[in-house]
Amino acid sequence: MNTNETISILFDFDGTLVDTMKVIEMVVKNGMERLGSKLDEKKMMELITSLELSDNKVLKNTPKGGKLIYFKLFHYLGRFLGLSKIKSFLFMLYCLVNVPKNYKYAKPFEGVSDMIHKLQSKGVLMGIVTSARKKDIDKLFKEYLSNFSVIVTREMVSHIKPSPEGILKAMEVLNSNPKKTVYIGDFPHDIMAAKNAGINSIAVLTGSVTDIILEKENPMKICTNAVEAVEWYLKSDYECD
Fold it and tell me: Does position 224 have pLDDT exceeding 90, yes or no?
């Protein structure tokens, strides 16, 4: 039973626990090639950088649960990469169909399985707060779901990250002490959401965002991956001011 002094660790999903970014990048590359264009990796990095802004037009005012976020994101990506309006629409449809189809190839990052079992043996409360769909998590992470006390997906919130709604929901279920809670994620909006929820955050470099971008949001620590982040946090005995 949680005495409110138990450590709670909340995780983002895509790019933090599971390597879904390779799947997305593969589909984006194939989609561009089908439309007679090549993927400009420099442009991709510029897009990722632009998404760090909390008022970015792709993420701002996304409808309930973020159900249209991928429609907006892939269409915006097509336009950003230089496709015409018609080709951007076709590109969006291609990505919407093929990203879910290829999700089955996404795997947990190395060491995640051992990390989860180690945390459980130590009595650490674990949760997932993500903008991903519940059915994708059920499919990709089925083996580990029973180890998490709470999972908040985009269908369960009115506002996705950087809103703190998902994190606050998870903390309520866990009866978490904010001073004993940390959120681990790979994207600037993860760090913003944690800050908005009044808890500490650790950024990881397993997504597509560089440490330079993540540093701007001032996480308590930037680590190579979630395993390293957990090890550092447990040793640090860090509390939120």
Answer: yes
What backbone phi and psi angles, to 5 degrees, belong to 14?
Answer: -60, 125
Fold of 8-19+106-236: Rossmann fold (3.40.50)
AA identity, residue 193 = A
What is the crossing angle of helices 69-80 and 85-102, to 10°? 130
3-state secondary structure of 237: coil
Instruction: Compute the distance between CA of residue 31 and CA of residue 160 in angstroms, rounded to an integer.
Output: 27
For the entire predicted model, the pTM comes to 0.85
CA distance 101 to 155: 20
Question: What is the token pair recorded at 80?
Answer: 């950003």
Dump pLDDT digits (tens) for 36-60: 988 777 766 666 655 544 445 555 5
Per DSSP, helices labelled H in the chain are: 21-34, 41-50, 69-80, 85-102, 112-121, 134-140, 165-174, 188-197, 211-215, 226-236
Compute the distance between CA of residue 47 and CA of residue 26 in angstroms, rounded to an integer. Answer: 16
